[in-house]
Amino acid sequence: MRGLPAAARGYIGCATLAAALCAAPASRLGAGAPWSSTLALATLYVLCEQLPRCPLLGGRVPYGPGSAGASGGSVAGWASPVLLAGVFLLPPPLAALAAVPGALTGPAEARSAAARRLWHAAELALACCAAAEVFRAIGHHPLSAPQFPVLLLPAAAAAATFCAVLAVLDGGVLVAAERHPLRTAWRGALTRSLGPHLVHGLAGLMMAVLWRSSYGPVAALLVLLPMCLSCWVFAQYHRERTAHQATIRALVQAVDIKDRYTRGHSERVGRASVMIARELGMAEDRVEVLRFAGILHDVGKLGVPTRLLRKDGPLTPEERRVIELHPEYGHEIVRGIGFLEEARAAILHHHERLDGRGYPYGLRGHHIPECARVVAVADAFDAMTSTRSYRRARPVPAAVAELRKCAGEQFDARMVRALAASLDRYGWQPDLVTAADAEAGAVREGQGAVTAQGAGEAAAGGQHRAPRPALRPEGAGRDGAR
User: Fold this and answer.
1) Residue of 93, 461, 119 whose CA lies nearest to 308
2) CA-based diameter of the chain, in Å?
3) In this predicted structure, what is the pLDDT of residue 201?
4) Angle (CA) 36 39 42, round 5°
5) What pLDDT was estimated at residue 205?
6) Residues 356-372 pLDDT 10s
7) Cystine design at 138: which of 154, 373, 447, 465 (Cβ 3.0–4.6 Å)?
8) CA torsion angle for 356, 362, 365, 367 (degrees, to 10)?
9) How far is it, in rounded angstroms, from Cα 71 to Cα 52?
10) Domain residue extents for the chain
11) Which CATH number fits domain 259-464: 1.10.3210.10, 3.30.450.20, 3.40.50.720, 3.40.50.10330?
């Protein structure tokens, strides 16, 4: 836990202490408590947590539906019914204990893996204990005769409690460990996961009823078969998404190899785009789209002759017009990638300007897609704060000041304010780029001054031009009329 912020260590420590206090009364339950059921459910949950490593599932699915993978939190979707069955079958302290072994032995991201597992165990124990208390408070002290319809309401209340506790705790750890803004840390967390958890609660209730029926615990395992099927479907989705990401990475590396002057630029623009999107409170799915848009904004350079990208000296007007076709080339290159629908607009329009003097179409103001206005600011910021072969980087405060100066004419002022606010909160580390960049020795920390050259300095051939005023038109468009 040494690498975590102090606030995160304190938060995880408090959650762990609270979980221990919830489980402590189990020591006073005596031999008459359902210890065998607790052990069986704990073992079953351990197996469910190991399920993502199964070769049949690709062995690469770290989290299931409803998981809060970013924080190392919530329970995988196919394992939720097991924990909720424990909520319905066991006293609250034992329900909390049943979740701990699986959480401590389950998969976790390599970064701070021990802390993530400890946090996972603590939040699940708290969620299970709270859900079990709610289930019994409504009047169903241990689950007995299978009165299935009567149990639906308390079971739904318990599942909703389970979901709410996880959502609250996960939002808190995002603030403490990953420094998310308070106003966005919990946004949408409950609404996104409530539906799946209610379905899992129904499956857990069916498991609990079968567990206590004459058919016994073995029959309860049949309920997990549909969950395993959904796990397999999710694994296929995960593989497809991984293939998409590998394609994106290959495209970016191809651009970096072709245009050696801006190596690592795409990754940094993607990171800055995410900072802006999160500061604006965008939903996580749009944040992901903006990340891809930032990473791929210059992919159209693959269609530009290498001799122009690597030319020493200034570009002729004809050569500049050729380079300014790269947004349209990029738009065509990613056309076949279905989940990049909005990102295509950012790739096509990230060199437009609010005053209409951008390219390729000279769009004005809010006719420029929002995602393109985000990427434009991120692109210009990294162009100014990166060291290139022809000049030193500009300090971050000076770059932000230049962006503010150009806001309203060249850039969207709202995006500039969002980037400035995010930089104040998190800072900027330009050296954090891909491993491939680091191995190539392409990352150079820079200071000094450079004039702002708009949203497309590097992409429009700026590395071969003399400095020019920030608000000068970006050059002629495809038809020569801009």
Assistant:
1) 461
2) 88
3) 86
4) 150
5) 87
6) 999 999 999 999 999 99
7) 154
8) 160
9) 18
10) 6-238, 259-464
11) 1.10.3210.10
